[in-house]
Amino acid sequence: MAVEWERIGQPGFDRIVEAVVHRVYDAAARVEAVNGRGGDNGIDIKVTRGSRVRVFQLKYYPDGFPTTSHKGRRGSIRESFARAMRGAPQEWVLVVPCVLTPAERAFVLSLADGLAVEVEVWDRAKLDDLLAVHADLEASFTRDQLFEAAKVYGQERALLMGGVDDVSARVRALGGQADGLDDHWTIDSARQGDTVVHTLRGKHPRAHEVSPVVFTLTGIGPLAPEQSEAVRRSLGYGLDEKVVLPRGAVEKVTVTGPEFLGRELENAEVRWGPAEAGPLAGVEADMVFLDGDQITASYPGTLKHLGLGSVGRSVRMELAGGRLQLLIPENPQAAPSLTFSFSLEGLEPAAALRALRLHRRIAAGGTFEVRTGAGAVGGGEIPPSPEAEYRDFPQLQLFLEDLEVVQRHSEQYFPVPDELTHEERIALRVARLLADGHCVICPFLPEVRLTLNGRDTPATRALLAGEVQPLHLPCGAFAVQIAGRRLELGPVFVSHPEAAVAADSRGPALAALTAGRSDGVEVGVRPVGGGRFRLVLQNSPSGSGMTPVPLGLPGYREPH
User: Fold this and answer.
1) 123-132, 205-214, 223-232: which has the minimum mean pLDDT?
2) How far apart are CA 535 and CA 437, in angstroms?
3) What is the pLDDT of residue 152?
4) What is the pLDDT of residues 493-526, one digit of tens each?
5) C-alpha torsion 435→439→441→443, nearest 10
6) Which residues fall within 8 angstroms of residue 511, CB to CB, at 6 or more apart?
7) CA-based nearest residue to 428, from 523, 531, 552
């Protein structure tokens, strides 16, 4: 059903035109409806896109402005045009609810003679065309005309003989009717069991500015401490988190705005969540630590949210394994609040180390900023944290460094294990020192097995007699078992300055040697005094020597 232009009156005409202009230009330009029709500036609606200004002048002349009657109308149009030209717009548009005669159109276009301005007319035909494109707007202004017809047809009681296809068609049709409730807002509805959920949706990007919807909560409280904090962060700083106020926490909820939304609710559960992401959300950002103007450290991440509330701003940033939340009060005397949480789950050692070092930077305190390509979006001064909060960090950092070096050496990469046994931790430390080229005492190597070749020599008999000798033997590939994975480190030398054949191996081996049957016989060789053998990778630098370095594990007694 078309708009009856001759019956809607000046206020209705103005409202329809404003809605149409918003819909046509809102996505790419700034639209302003000027209060006071025919004011001193001769502007009813102003559309600005960059440096280009387009002015709309609304004249409710349903029967036009012929020279034979309504003689004052042309003068009014001319005066409005002259006032608008003081602002030097690039385009001027006359909007009228009638179909112009050739003479009337010629009169309007002649206003631009000798001036650097484009003149256009939106008449009834143009408006009808635009409303056809934006059918929901037309529906919102003609729904009263359809009300009686809807009651007669009673479509809500029709049988759904076509099954799911009929349901889909009816849902779409209902959505179309909902689109006609208002020219700026509509609702998307869904049924969940016996509950119908309505989601409010703006029809254009500036719906919240042109037609704001206000929710007023009356009688809030008492709230649990965590609820109070959530409200403070969300409303005070615009943080993007979901807030739930249970029934009984709010006495009354009042909704004001478009007529179809206005209502009061009592004993209601109130939930609100984050708005759509801002223009900078998703861009690359850096957490930068400063000493004066000097950058002392910088950690990359992604800016996820910028918010603004009643008392300050909020910044949320995600980094590898971590999440940073910053609340910045408007009061410059108040200190910002920074929260950083991190998890090593799913991270490889290098990324886990970066997250841990960032946490230590934050715990140490100092000046910082969150920076994007557009500049700093937040920052402040962090007070140092109590040392007890990061007392265990050195051990964790050592573990991650060991794991990173061994993974790189063995070319086996995997996320940080959830846990390691005590023995695995020691084995990892041994592997790290070997990979670094050091000689290390292996606490898991109290004995090595030697295989005799059957040759009877004085040196062999001295060895089997229990004589103490230095031992330095090449050995095949050495590996450690970490979190169910075998990490190969390469061939090693096994050595000890004082080693001897174990007593339980001597007699049988010596008898076999004397009988000429010693080929393939194994004997156990152990360090004297119950010590452990030393290891060094065969490809270690020649200067590394066989002097062992300590394992350096806190709480673990060094092997000898």
Assistant:
1) 205-214
2) 10
3) 40
4) 999 999 999 998 899 999 999 999 999 999 999 9
5) 10
6) none
7) 552
Please say whether the beta carbons of 86 and 52 come within 8 A. no
Contact (CB, 8 A) for 384 and 367: no
CB distance 189 to 178 below 8 Å: yes
Cα–Cα distance measured from residue 517 to residue 503, given in angstroms and rounded to the nearest whole number: 20
Q: Would you mind telling me the total number of residues written for the chain in this entry?
A: 560
Phi-psi region of 279 (alpha: psi -120 to 50; beta: other; left: phi over 0): alpha
Residue 501, C-beta contacts closer than 8 angstroms, at least 6 positions apart: 463, 464, 466, 509, 523, 524, 525, 526
**Letter for the amino acid at 38?**
G
- 3-state SS assignment for residue 525: strand
In angstroms, rounded to a whole number, what is the distance separating the alpha carbons of residues 5 and 10? 10
340 DSSP assignment: E
Closest to 217 measured CA to CA, from 257, 265, 185, 274: 265
Q: Dump pLDDT digits (tens) for 191-209.
A: 887 788 888 888 887 787 7
Residue 38's pLDDT is 45
* The model's pTM: 0.59
